[in-house]
Design goal:
With 453 residues, the chain is an alpha+beta fold. It has 15 helices and eleven strands. It comes from Breznakibacter xylanolyticus.
């Protein structure tokens, strides 16, 4: 088989494959013989159908199939052997003539290809990139401590109702004279949250009450949301919407959520024996954890800024016309896009591709590699973040590693963690190679950086 390459420009080329009879004849004959052994036809025993009859009935489709396989194999081998760095995949040329398997013995196949642009991703201290950190305030530390103590808090029985209480109570609907309404609503036990009451005057009627006390109040005013009221009174939403009666509320139980105390038991539960021994050390640990968590946000912002600056610096040219053709040719399935959607998304696709090419060039030029330990570290970090969301900071290292290994057993997750690991290496390399313009911002100022992204 003869394969020739015609260069159109720096990014586009045409591959022409000429297939002669000698290239495919043996393959086709072998395929016909194998098919003859399996084909079943009335009047013939299996494997005894005449070869001529098999060729007459199935020869054309087998010929086309074998030639297509041959073209695909040789095209792939040519690209590999010649180390062509393609963008997308080869596309049948728009100049391709219709292949006539009946009239010809030699065939020509033409493919358009696009190659990645050649450029050097040179980075130095002359390149200045912003790196934003978030200032940790006392308020942020206090909020984090409240979150931590809240996760380890619990509901406790108290003696007196406050505006933070949860109440179990029995309810009786009253008539205009303050007596139990005939055929009115009666609930033996329901739960009332003081924190969600909307009317202060009605809520304050309960504040200060104790178990056994009875209070008359208008529940519809205190809880105007019909869904909440219907749940409390065990009636339909429609009934709740028209309710105006007062109710006698008899208090059966009072509880309040109590945050965990800052003591050694909590410190040990969070971090293990002897790691944190007092409130000052606990606050420092919380601040350290906040800094680690916020570093992820800083790195994410840095990735966006590095992408913007470096894509602009290297000014990479891409074969956009080919890429549009390739996307449209591979655009199928349930998520198929319209031509209008493809055209609208192309600028973002082009920018994404340029950034990927820059990262690939950094990896190649600086021989950046990842191994199993890098991927495992990425999985462990993801697992650690998951556990921290549930207030679990003191996870044994062996348990954390086993959990991460379980995640890596799933091929898709392993691929994602591997991609994350190499991406981290690239960004760390860029940080070291360029000059960082470090700026500390407040949380609000940092958030505003994303308003135009």
């Amino acid at each position: 088989m003869n394969i020739s390459k015609q260069t159109i420009d720096d990014l586009n080329a045409v591959l022409t494959l000429t297939v002669e009879k000698a290239d495919y004849e043996t393959r086709v004959n072998d395929a016909l013989n194998n098919y003859r052994k399996k084909v079943q036809m009335p009047g013939f025993r299996p494997g005894k159908v005449p070869a001529g009859m098999v060729k007459k009935m199935y020869g054309k489709s087998i010929l086309a199939d074998e030639i297509n396989k041959l073209v695909s194999e040789n095209l792939s081998n040519y690209i590999t052997d010649n180390k062509l760095n393609l963008l997308g995949e080869p596309l049948p040329s728009e100049k391709q003539q219709l292949v006539d398997f009946d009239a010809n013995e030699s065939f020509e196949f033409i493919f358009d290809i696009a190659t990645a642009p050649e450029f050097e991703a040179d980075l130095s201290k002359k390149d200045k990139l912003p790196y934003y950190t978030i200032a940790i305030t006392d308020e942020m530390i206090d909020q984090q401590i409240k979150s931590v103590t809240g996760r380890f808090g619990k509901n406790e029985v108290v003696d007196v109702i406050s505006d933070q209480s949860m109440i179990k109570a029995s309810l009786v609907e009253l008539d205009a004279n303050g007596n139990a309404k005939q055929d009115g609503i009666q609930v033996d036990e329901t739960v009332i949250s003081m924190m969600v009451a909307k009317d202060d005057a009605e809520r304050n009627k309960l504040v200060g009450s104790k178990v056994g006390d009875a209070v008359v109040m208008n529940l519809a005013k205190a809880y105007p949301n019909a869904n909440e009221l219907s749940y409390m009174l065990k009636i339909s939403k429609e009934q709740a919407e028209g309710l105006t009666s007062d109710f006698k509320v008899t208090v059966n139980e009072i509880t309040e959520f109590k945050y965990a105390e800052l003591n050694q038991d909590l410190f040990t539960q969070l971090y293990g024996e002897g790691v944190v021994n007092n409130e000052e050390e606990f606050k420092n640990k919380v601040k350290e954890e906040l800094a680690n968590n916020l570093a992820f946000e800083s790195d994410y912002r840095f990735q966006l800024d590095a992408r913007e600056k470096l894509v602009a610096k290297f000014d990479i040219k891409l074969p956009e016309a080919f890429l549009i053709r390739w996307i449209k040719a591979t655009n199928h399935g349930n998520d198929k896009l319209t031509d209008e959607q493809i055209n609208a998304e192309m600028p973002k696709f082009i920018e994404d591709l340029k950034w990927q090419l820059i990262k690939n060039k950094v990896i190649e030029a600086n021989k950046l590699e990842i191994d199993h330990q890098d991927v495992l570290a990425a999985a462990k970090q993801a697992a650690r973040i998951q556990f921290m969301q549930y207030g679990l900071s003191n996870i044994p290292e062996d348990y954390l590693e086993n959990y991460a290994m379980d995640m890596l057993n799933k091929e898709e997750q392993r691929r994602q963690f591997a991609q994350g690991a190499i991406n981290t290496k690239v960004l760390n390399f860029i940080k070291e190679a360029v000059k960082l313009d470090e700026k500390e911002l407040s949380r609000d100022e940092f958030n505003k950086l994303f308003e135009n992204n």
